[in-house]
Structure formats: structure tokens, C-alpha cells
């Protein structure tokens, strides 16, 4: 029942986004999709523990922070 409720909430709160731009991210091409999505939705933050992303600090208008930084920033 908990899983069913979670999935229901997940589906109801999700939005599909068409990502039209492609980004060449040579450090790790598998991470390009996260940058592309952040650009498409004009995200304020990417929260990641992936060093290839966190070393950037920001991408265009998106801040890239670690989970611990996120907790520090938003727990106050």
C-alpha cells in the first residue's frame, strides 16, 4: 500500500519535459542529460554527489551542489 501511494504521488507530481538542446559534456557524457534537463527547466539547483558535476559549481543559471550543501542551505 505504501509503494502504491508513493507511486501515485510520484506520477501526480511529475511533469514531462521535452529537452530540445544537447550539451557536449566531455568529462562524463553520461552526465550531459542532467545538464540538458536543468537548462530546459531553468533549474535553480542540481543536487549531486558526482564530482564531475560538483566541480563545475554552476552551469548557466543552475547551481550545482552536494547533498550536504543542500541540507546546510535549506535546513535553516
Q: Got a strand count?
A: 3
Q: How do the strands line up in the largest sheet?
A: 1-3-2
Overall structural class, as computed from helix and strand content, comes to: alpha+beta
What gap, in angstroms, lies between the N and C termini?
33 Å
Radius of gyration (Å): 15 Å
Number of helices: 4
Main β-sheet description: 3 strands, mixed
Poorly predicted parts: none
Order of helices and strands: HHEHEEH
Overall mean confidence score, pLDDT: 93
Report what the structure shows.
By secondary structure, the chain is of the alpha+beta class. It has helices at 2-13, 32-41, 51-54, 67-74; strands spanning 45-47, 58-59, 62-65. The protein has a three-stranded mixed β-sheet. It is globular, with a radius of gyration of 15 Å. The mean pLDDT is 93.
List keywords for this structure.
single chain; 76 residues; alpha+beta; 3-stranded mixed sheet; 4 helices; 3 strands; 45% helix
Topology:
Layout: H1 2-13, H2 32-41, E1 45-47, H3 51-54, E2 58-59, E3 62-65, H4 67-74
A few lines on this structure:
The chain has 76 residues and is α+β, with helices and mostly antiparallel strands.
